[in-house]
Design goal:
This protein is of the alpha+beta class and 92 residues long. The protein is built from 2 helices and 5 strands. The protein has helices at residues 40-53, 80-90, and strands at 4-12, 19-24, 27-31, 60-64, 70-76. The chain has a 5-stranded mixed sheet, with helices on one face. The longest helix has 14 residues, at 40-53. The radius of gyration is 12 Å and the shape is globular. The N and C termini lie far apart (30 Å).
Length: 92
């Protein structure tokens, strides 16, 4: 099994639907429907990434940016190339 890979996210909470939008500079931009209160948006980000990347939620961890829009997320068992491919393929 591979180690973990970190990615940078720009999160837009309170959206009409959860989705990966595309790039925002060096970060990936994602939208989640949950509001930015009581950690709800963070939980939604973890769920969205786990579903999109086909990994269990326990393999997705927000390591920085819990209270802001810009977050660093650690993804266990995925290479940077695979993450890029799966996130890119999920853009709607």
């Amino acid at each position: 099994m591979e180690g973990s890979t970190r990615i940078v996210l720009r999160v837009a909470p309170g959206a009409s639907r959860a989705q990966v939008v595309g790039r925002h500079g060096a970060a990936w931009k994602v939208r989640v429907t949950a509001p930015p209160e009581d950690g709800k948006a963070n939980e939604a980000v973890v769920r969205l990434l786990a579903k999109t990347l086909h990994v269990p939620e326990r393999d997705v961890e927000i390591v920085s940016g819990h209270g802001g829009r810009d977050k660093i997320v650690s993804l266990a068992g995925l290479s940077a190339a695979k993450i890029e491919r799966l996130l890119g393929a999920s853009i709607t």
